[in-house]
Amino acid sequence: MRPLTDDETKTMFEKLSKYIGENIKHLVDRPDGTYCFRLHNDRVYYISETILKLATNISRGKLVSVGTCFGKFTKTIKFRLHITALDFLAPYAKFKVWVKPGQEQSFLYGNHVLKSGLGRITENTNQYQGVVVYSMADVPLVSWPSPFTYCPLSNQISQHIALPLHILSIIQSNQSTYSPPPSHTVHYPIKSVNI
Amino acid sequence: MAACSIEDLLAKAEQDEAEKLKSITVQKELDLEFDIGNLVAYDKNRIDIRQFREQKKEDFLRSLARDNTQLLVNEIWKHPTERVEEVIVVKLPEPTTPLPREKPPPKPRPPTKWEEFAKLKGIQKKKKTNLVWDDKVAKNELHRLRNIARAQKIKVPGVGLTPIAQQSKSDLARAVNVAKSSTASAGKFQDRLPKEKAPRNTGKKRKFQPVIGNFSNEKQRQLDLLKVMDSKKPRLDVNKAVNKQMREVDREEAAAKFKKGGKKGRKGGNFSGKGKGGGGKGKGKGRAGGKGQGPPSGKKGAGKPGKR
C-alpha cells in the first residue's frame, strides 16, 4: 500500500472530474475526518485515517481490500472507475439522468437509455458529458458490465429530436474482471456520505 | 611298340598344345578396342561378304561372336585378380566410354520468394567482415574468464568496471562514483570537490511517499493539483456561450413569429416548428464540431431531426 504519485493522482482526478466536476475537493477535504487515497495492487482505495492506520498492520500479500475501491490503474496506467465508487460519486454528480421505471430494468441489464425512457435530465448537459443515472426514486443506478455512462447527445439537441428511440445515455464500457454477472444487478440505495 | 617314338610323342604333345592354344587364340586383321570398365570390345574388322553369303548366316555370326568374346575374356584376364570368398574376381578399371543420361536433366527450379524479392530490389549478397570492436572483444573475454572462474569455483578479486576505450560522460561519472564509494565506510565520509554537487539517487528504485505521512501536506498537494487542473480548463466554455447565444436568438425569433402567426393561425405555428428544427440542426452540427471529447463525429448524424 502506498500513496498515489502526482501523475497517478492527476489521472484519477481527471477521470473523476468527468462525473463530479470540481466537487472532488469535497472528497479530498472532508469536514468529518481525514480520508485519503491509497494504492494497493494497482487499485485505488478511499480510506479514512483510522482504517488506514489499522490496515498497516496487515502484510501486503494478505491485504485484500481496504475501505472503498474507487477503481484501478491498468497496465498502461489508465484509470478505470469501478461501481464501488458510485456511493461517493452519486451525491456529487453534476449531471444526472433520470430513467423511467419501465426502462430502469432494461438499463440495469446493460442496454442504453433511449430517449423514450428518459424521465428527467439535468439542464445544460453537454455532449459526451459523464452522467450518473438515477431511477425515478432517486436511486443511483449502475448497470453491468459498465458502471458509468456518458451522454452522447446534449440536453438541447435531445429536445429537438422527434424520434423517441434515440440513444441518450451510452453506457461507457468499463470492463472490470470482477464485475458481477447479470443476476447480481446492483441497485444501490442512496447512502449518506458519512459512512 | 617303338612306333610310339619320342618324336611322335613330342609332335603329338605339340599338336595338342597348338590345338589348345588354337581354342584361345584368335587371329584378326585389326586389333579390337577394349573398354573393360564397361566390359565392351569394339571390333572394327571388315566383314567378308562373300564368306557371309557362302556359309549359313547363323554359323558365321556365331563363330564371329565366339572369336570376339574370346578376345574380350583374354583381355579381362590381363587385369589384376583377387580372391573374394573362394571366387576369383577381376578388378575392373574405370570405364572409358561415355554413356548417355539415364534420367532427363533437372529442370531449373523456380526462384524462391526471397530470390524474387532480392532481384526486384537489387539486393546483392554481402559478406560480413570479421572485424569487431576491440572493446567488445575485451569485455567478452573478461566475462568468459569470469564464467570459467565461477564454474570452477576459483575466487577472483572483484573488478568494479571494465576498461573502456572511449569513455562517455556517464561512464566517467560512474567511475567516479564507484571510486568514491570504494572505501571502508562506503564513501560516506568522502570529501567532495568544492563545486561538486551531491550525488543524485543512482539506484533504480522509485521513491514513494510513506504510507502514513503528513496528511495535511498530502491534502494540500492534492488541492493544489485540483486548482492547477481547474486553471487549465478554460473559464469560458466557448461552445456553451455560442450555443446560449444562439438559443437566445432563436427564442426571440420564435416569439416574434408566434406573434405574427397568431393572426394567421396554424401555418405560422408550423413555420416556427420548422424554424426550431432548422435551428436545432445548426446547433447540433456546431456543437458536435466543437467538442473534441467522446466518440467520433459519427454521432453527429443523430443530431439531425428525423423528418417523416
UniProtKB/TrEMBL annotation, chain A:
PROSITE patterns: PUA. It holds the Pfam family pre-PUA_NIP7. Gene3D superfamilies: 3.10.450.220, PUA domain (2.30.130.10). Residues 1-83 form the 60S ribosome subunit biogenesis protein NIP7 pre-PUA domain. InterPro entries: NIP7_N (IPR040598), Nip7_N_euk (IPR055359), PUA-like_sf (IPR015947), PUA_sf (IPR036974), UPF0113_PUA (IPR005155). Residues 96-141 form the UPF0113 domain. One of its GO terms (molecular function) is RNA binding. This is NIP7 nucleolar pre-rRNA processing protein.
UniProtKB/TrEMBL annotation, chain B:
Residues 257-267 have a biased composition (Basic residues). Keywords: Nucleus, Ribosome biogenesis. One of its GO terms (biological process) is ribosome biogenesis. InterPro entries: Ribosom_reg (IPR007023). Residues 268-281 have a biased composition (Gly residues). The keyword Nucleus applies. It is found in: Nucleus. Residues 189-199, 218-238, 245-256 have a biased composition (Basic and acidic residues). Residues 181-308 are annotated as: Disordered. Its main location: nucleus. Involved in ribosomal large subunit assembly. Belongs to the RRS1 family. This is Ribosome biogenesis regulatory protein. It comes from Oncorhynchus mykiss (Rainbow trout).
